[in-house]
Amino acid sequence: MKPYLKLDEWSIIEEGFDPHTHEISESVFSIGNGFMGQRANFEETYSGNSLQGSYMAGVYYPDKTRVGWWKNGYPEYFAKVLNSTNWIGIQIDIDGTPLDLAQCTVKDFVRELNMKEGVLSRQFTAELEDGKQIRVEAIRFVSMVRHEIGAIRYAVTPLNFAGKLTITPYLDGDVKNKDSNYDEKFWLEVFKETAPGSAALTVKTKKLDFHLTSVMSYDILKNGEKLDLQAVELIEQEKYAANRLTVNASEGEIVTIYKYVANVTSRNHGLGELLNAARAVLAPAVETGFESLLQEQSQAWGDKWKESDIVIGGDVAAQQAIRFNIFQLNQTYSGEDDRLNIGPKGFTGEKYGGSTYWDTEAYCLPFYLSTADASISRNLLIYRYKHLEKAKENAKKLGFTKGALYPMVTMNGEECHNEWEITFEEIHRNGAIAYAIYNYVNYTGDFAYLAEYGLEVLVEISRFWEERVNYVPANDQYMMLGVTGPNEYENNVNNNWYTNRIASWTMEYTLDVLNYVKENEEDRYADLIRHLELLETETSKWQDIISKMYYPEDPERGVFLQQDGFLNKELIPVKDLDPVQLPLNQNWSWDRILRSVYIKQADVLQGLFFLGDQYDLETKKRNFDFYEPFTVHESSLSPCVHSILACELGYQEKAYEMYLRTARLDLDNYNNDTEDGCHTTSMAGTWMSVVHGFGGLRVKDGVLHLNPFVPGHWTSFSFKVMFRGARLKVNVTDKEILIVNETDTSVELNVNGKEYAMDALGEIKSAR
Q1: Catalytic site residue from 414, 488, 490, 628
Q2: What pairs with residue 90 in β-bridges?
Q3: In this predicted model, what pLDDT tens digit does every residue of 326-355 receive, in sequence order?
Q4: What predicted TM-score, i.e. pTM, was given to this entire model?
Q5: Which of 158, 186, 583, 684 is the most buried (most CB within 10 A)?
Q6: What is the DSSP annotation of 89-113?
Q7: In sequence order, which residues have a C-beta less than 8 Å from that of residue 414 and are 6 or more positions away?
């Protein structure tokens, strides 16, 4: 599809309304604050194609699994983030005719997402069938300061007529999910109430008993003067509460609606407290007023950008793209609630159920490590710690006697994914969670986390690996049979190199952590050994598995084999395919894909990225040169890993090519699937491509290492990272590297192989 969004450093701008791209725009222009999110649906009626989405963090529904052939061990449900009460609705009727952009001529349409301030605006002129023209200017946001508040300013101006404008601000809980397995609606009404100038609605889920209360308050002004709302019509229908007011408006008169809504859930308030809680947060927001709330929003986003902005010189498309990725990440997860996690679509759509995948640990954690206080990323790990008992239950459901298998997809720790080749076999996700513990501690220096939470998780994951391996006496080796690695274009294989390696590494790291806790926190160590009932025979077995793990290799090529039998395939590189066959997942049968050599995403290379300190450049180069030509990158998580490795290997053009594949993935609808939501977790990979790739960021022995270069398409770039209490601004040009410490915390650095002691509020310069 031809890109249709205007290039701008700080905004996403759509000029002209095209109903064929509207659902894509609904995703791209989504707004959120970590606690709730809203797709860019219109406030007024729209009868065209639209995916309605108002989402409340942590509120989900266990939709009954729908499969043709049930297998033992399948989860009974697929957890889904719910399309919740439509709180943005403002119906506009013009002399009895609904304003509906699908039924009128639209002129001068501009939709803008101001990423600098976290605000969505829209302006257009609509001409109805009878020739009446009306101008609309709308702006809305969900507050980064008051997490349960959303606010809208919606101004209507008759341009060539005098007539009656009927305005109906409403709350509508009679909504459904497009991805409902059985077209079921998931909400029931509990309570509704209307009064002049306000309305309240409480709905609850049919299962799990989540309650959501929405309370709205509004004002209507004509030419800047408030109208009396005592004469409004009060409307109450099933799961629907509204006010209706008719205003006589002359040509050129501006009628403005200010709508404020509080959305509160039973996750944060008692069932009997919801209505009062909503009113308690709404009243001060209304008193503060729209303009002051807008100023709060701008300031809050300004603070976010001070911590996480990346500035790129000489490439507006790249600048816009990286800020869009950072914006989505910051509005998806705030880290303030350790019960929450990050869905692959964030608050932008329903796909993947809005659930937690291994994407969080593998791709998102580095962003929050570097751009926020350590407590934020710590909460991502605590989320998994709190699900440890569920992970142990998941392992038992699959027939294991001990250990923990973290789910591929989850909301509450239970597995809720029902594709057998993923649910049962894509067990490398366990390794991503173990690696995240290592990554967090290595980056932050928070070794206390290991004794407090981390070791318990590591032991249970290692126990799972111990039972999952197969010992082969003839070879005196341990193998891993019947798995699916990160490359999902290979199912049910034996000895996926990455899975074997991450399993062995997890046991190695667990033994290291056991020794660390024993030496540094003796009492806690003793308590954990008793609590875990950990025996020396277990740790000895782990050591035996580590020393005898089988890894498929090709000595002739000097590469690790993705799995047994990989070289039996026909080795035709992607460049020799007819381009019309790409993407394979939209043109080939699954049978043909599984028999082919083609790789969906980084697999062996994923391991070389994670465990990069254990392999030399020549090993990485041989494997990259072998595997990248067979990789179709049909996972949004693939290009970033390749970009980072290409940077390390000095393949600057390949690094930039891979960066482009992920940076504008959604803005340019690269995979023709943005309409169902943005690829939020791959956006974290885009950030990694800049900071870990072009910036060369690594942490070795507690020291931050940087080895940056400027891609040939840019004149410069800069980024900020938090590291052990210090916030560093790194600016890179062709001639020099300037690093400024913006805090009063000193830190050690290694830049291009040279050691520096970075003083508080100091700076260093290094020639390129």
Answers
A1: 488
A2: 169
A3: 999 999 999 888 999 998 898 999 888 778
A4: 0.96
A5: 684
A6: -EEEEETTEEP-TTSSEEEEEEEEE
A7: 75, 79, 390, 393, 394, 407
